[in-house]
C-alpha cells in the first residue's frame, strides 16, 4: 500500500482523488471511487440548488461508508448561484472535506469551512496561486498542469515542470492533476514531489460514470491530440474534447468575435444534454490529453486497483532494479 501525507490527512487507502466534474460528479461515481479506497468529490453546482445537493450527499452516503467530499467552484457569472448557501449545505451535511476552485472570492466560503472544521483542497494552476492559498490556510493543493481538462490557466506550464516547482515551495500536501490515468503517472507524480494524483477524464471512462457510453468509447478511441483550447482570447482558457461544436467555437473566437458570438455553442445545458443523449457533436464536453492513455472502460474498483498495482510494481521492481544495477556496476 502506498502511504503519503494525502492518504494520512484524508483517511483514504490510496493516493488517488477524483476531482469535481460538472454533470459527472454525482453519487454513483463518487461512491464507487470511495469504495475503491480513493477520494471522490460530488460536484455541488451539478445540483440545481442547495436542497438538491443535500439529497445527493445523502444518496452518496447510502452507497458508501468511506470518506468522500464535495467540490465547490466559485466563478463570477451573470446569474451567480448562492455560493454561501451551497457551502452551508455542505457544512450542515457533516461533510469534512471540500475541493474548491475559482476566483479569490472563494475565500468567503473558505472562512465558513474553516470555522466548521472542514478540510480544504484548493485547485490551482500556478505556483504563485498555490502559495497564496497556502498562506490563507487551505489544507492541501491540487496543482493542475496544462494537460488537464477544464481550465488549465493562462501560463501553459505542463505538469513535468509545474509539479516539482510547486513541491519545492509549497509545504502542505500536493495532488498532481492533469494527464494522469495509470500507475506510471502515479509514480511520476510521487517522484516529482506530489503526495498523490487527481484524475478527472480517466474516471469519466469508467462503468460508473453517469454519462452515455458513446462518450466513454470516444475517449478510448481518441488520442492525446483530440482536444481544443477555447476562450484563450477571453483569458479564461478551457480544454475540451475536439468535436464539430468546439471546432466551430474556436474558429469564431479566432476571428476576433466576442464571447457572445459563441455563447449559444458552449452553454452548459447543451453539454449536459449531450452527455445524456450520447450525441458527441451536440455540445462541448471537457476532456484532457490523457485520452491518449485510455484504452478501456473498467469499473472504478478495477481501475484504482490496477493503477496502484502498476505503481507498486514500478517502485518495487523496475526502479529498484535500476538502483541495484547501478550499485553492482559501482
Mean pLDDT: 96
The largest sheet, given as strand count, sense and whether it forms a barrel, is: 8 strands, parallel, barrel
Strands ordered across the widest β-sheet: 1-2-3-4-5-6-7-8
Class derived from helix and strand content: alpha/beta
Cα distance spanning the termini: 31 Å
What percentage of amino acids are in beta strands?
5-15%
Within CATH, the superfamily of the largest domain carries the name: Aldolase class I
Name of the CATH first level of the largest domain? Alpha Beta
Can you give the helix content as a percent range?
Answer: 40-55%
Notes on the structure:
This protein folds into two domains: 207 residues, Alpha-Beta Barrel (TIM Barrel); 60 residues, no CATH class. The protein has 14 helices and ten strands. The two termini are 31 Å apart. The protein is of the alpha/beta class.
Keywords:
single chain, 330 residues, alpha/beta, TIM Barrel, 2 domains, eight-stranded parallel barrel, two-stranded antiparallel sheet, 14 helices, 43% helix
Q: What's this entry about, in short?
A:
With about 325 residues, this protein is an alpha/beta fold. Helices cover about 45% and strands about 15% of the residues. It has 2 domains: about 5-210, TIM Barrel, CATH 3.20.20.70; about 225-285, no CATH class.
Protein topology:
Elements: H1 5-10, E1 16-18, H2 27-35, E2 39-43, H3 50-63, E3 68-74, H4 83-92, E4 97-102, H5 107-115, E5 119-124, H6 127-135, E6 140-144, H7 159-167, E7 174-177, H8 183-191, E8 196-199, H9 201-204, H10 213-221, E9 227-230, E10 238-241, H11 244-254, H12 263-266, H13 268-277, H14 300-329
Parallel strand pairs: 1-2, 1-8, 2-3, 3-4, 4-5, 5-6, 6-7, 7-8
Antiparallel strand pairs: 9-10
